[in-house]
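Example 4.3 (complexes with small molecules)
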Amino acid sequence: MKSAVLLLIVITQISFGHEGTVHGHKPKSPAQEKIPEDVLKAINDSYIKDVKPIFQKSCFNCHSSNTTYPWYSSLPLAKQLIKSDLTEAKEHLDMSHDFPFEGHGNPKEDLEAIGKSVKEGSMPPLRYRVMHPGSALSETDRSTVQTWIFQSLEKLK
Ligand code: HEC
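Answer. The structure with heme C bound is encoded below.
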């Protein structure tokens, strides 16, 4: 019993607990409309080929409608925390329908934000990596994603 309580505390603290950052919600910039369709398509083609399998493994559980709930989601409290985490993750960045992603950023902002998170190693969040061994990005994953981001930002120029 004592260990069950302890486990619950650990889970709520590290697995899906919110880290308490404050985010600004700015409207989508109108610059998005000016990007030619064929540029977006070229970026999406290489996304699907090289990057999507990586994101499927490490990001989709929170940043898409394609969620596989972990075993601990049935625990009271954990469930609520996971739910609000998922809502927030998708509000920022929803990868459900490939590139361009949905969420509050335009394509350039999304690419830059992903590049930053990969560089800093902030995604998936530590609390999630602890509970999901194998979800962290490998060195190869990171360089594949960064190459895609670099080439895509060039295409958007
Ligand atoms: C445990 C669920 C979870 C997983 C898995 C996860 N994220 Fe996130 N992500 C979040 C949450 C919650 C936020 C919003 C709060 C924050 O920024 O911490 C977020 C925010 C972000 C942002 C910031 C978006 C913005 O508008 O600034 C980026 C970029 C991002 N995630 C990329 C990724 C990538 C890439 C992966 C996979 C390698 C990933 N995330 C995996 C939960 C997750």
